[in-house]
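User:
Note these tokens:
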Amino acid sequence: MIRVFVVAASPVVRAGLSTVVATSSKLTVVGSASNLDVFAREFEQLQPDVLLLDVSGNFQELVWEKLLSSQQQPYAFAIIVLTDELDSIDLEAALRAGVRGILPSSSTESEIVAAVEAIAFGLVVLHSDTIESLLSPQESGMREKETAHPVQALTPREIEVLEMLGSGLSNKAIAKRLNISEHTVKFHVSSIFQKLSVSTRTEAVTVGVRLGLILL
């Protein structure tokens, strides 16, 4: 059985989440609390596998502050977060704190159960809305660049260089691989940036993959 501890400020939400968890034969609720302080006190005794944490509303700021500064070992248990503010999640900080699942508060019972079971087995679960919220700004920016600046055709040599950029090779390594000078490599990279309307290697590779110029 996967042992689940539920934390939510609202008694109604706690009861609702506990009921949802209980619908699965693979899950059992070992405890619930209104805040992380209570959870910290009961953690050693209850030894949950998953912390199901609702951070909706004004509770969110306080929860994140406590969670990210928690003295608990991040990987002693997996954390799944329910939130109504997906765009406010700092994914990198959340993962460091042990968060392995992020779902919107509007998630269905089956989505919550499936996510809890998945992260208990070591998977990371992000709802499609979460992924869109996290990636949309960058994706939109890239699309705007491509629309505003039509891509010019790359030469065969520039495509070779772009492929090597995708492999993480330095200018010096590329020069050695192609038997050309490092200065010539810099020229090709500059030309690639200009033609793809990008300013970094990462952007160049991203656009190259999207346009089918290279494969990673």
